[in-house]
Amino acid sequence: METKNQSAIQEFILVGLSSSPEHQMAIFWGFSFLYTAALAGNFLFILTVCTCSKLHTPMYFLLVNLSVANTLCISVTVPKMLQTSLAHRKIISFSGCIAQVYLFLWALSTEIMLLSFMAFDRYSAICHPLQYPVIMRKELCLVVVTGVWVTGMVNSAVHTGLVLQLSFCDSNIINHFFCDLPPLLALSCSDIRINETMAYAAAVVFTMGSCVLTLVSYMFILAAIFRIRSAEGKRKAFSTCSSHLLVVSFYFSTIIYTYIRPASSYTLEEDKVVAILFSVVTPVLNPLIYSLRNKDVKQAFRKLTGRFLLRPRLQ
After folding, report:
1. How far apart are the C-alpha atoms of 199 and 64, rounded to whole Å?
2. Contact 134/89 with Cβ under 8 angstroms?
3. Phi first, then psi: what are they for 53, rounded to 5°?
4. Which residues have C-beta within 8 Å of that of residue 132, sequence separation ≥ 6?
5. Which residues on adjacent β-strands are paired with residue 14?
6. What torsion do the CA atoms of 117, 149, 250, 41 make, to the nearest 10 degrees?
7. What is the pTM of this model?
8. pLDDT string in tens for the chain (315-residue length)
9. What are the φ and ψ backbone dihedral angles of 4, each rounded to 5 degrees?
């Protein structure tokens, strides 16, 4: 694509979470811990699922893909933030900024669609248990998940391509800790109406569309649970989807707040906090939520750690 960007700006300055030097070390060590926890948690979750045949089901296949998307999301933003928090000049190249926008939007849209398909998986399991193996067959899961990743890639490419058409001629200071779409659009001296329109359309289609599909799925799920006569049956049915419902509620609320607004209403400090919630905190919490609330995962993890602990003794 031939770009129209005639800007003299070759790099951007990331303000970060704080401009105060005394806060930089606290930010560095705090986010280093969160990043390490996210990588370790998601890697262990993926390893646990891959090594336990009992967990080779559609639900865990989707959760593994969600963990991959979570890892991509946090790896796009936090390492650069850690580097700039200790650097004297908190700069990111123009190409590096564009790469961040592309990869972050790809991970974000993929996560949203995966959460929606996971709601459909829980609907199929609870409302149509006898037909579940046919509905969520392996071939369908592979096709849908591949489509989700490809659709997220195309969506991200469209927005990134539109950003490349813009000029940045006044300021190169991004008051954020990474190159996100709203603060980048706010810096442009070009007409950003088409960018805002496409961002809003994508937010409605992906975020609101996925949110509606998720809500409809859970309406049917709750109706099915209330029809169960035994209290134990209701508890067991609800426990299979409570973790997903918790993640979805937290995730969609922050995404909708951030992206379904014009750049003119962008509030800098508030949106930094919200961005931390869905780009940093969520990748840390997801493996914990899906593991600590799941008996099968905990049993599989104990077996996995048992193998590694026994291996040195056998040698």
Report:
1. 28
2. no
3. -65, -25
4. 124, 125
5. 174
6. 110
7. 0.86
8. 444 444 567 889 988 887 777 788 888 999 999 999 999 999 999 999 998 888 899 999 999 999 999 999 999 999 999 998 888 888 999 999 999 999 999 999 999 899 899 889 988 988 888 999 999 999 999 999 999 999 999 999 999 999 999 888 878 888 888 998 888 888 888 888 899 899 888 888 887 888 888 888 888 888 888 887 777 777 776 776 777 777 777 777 777 666 665 555 556 677 788 888 888 988 998 888 887 767 778 888 888 777 666 555 545
9. -100, 10
Residue 96 structure tokens: 């590096």
Query: Which tokens is 192 given?
Result: 């950003």
Q: For tokens 């796009």, what's the residue?
A: 76
> Which structure tokens are listed for 132?
């579940």
Quick one: tokens of 193?
A: 């109406």
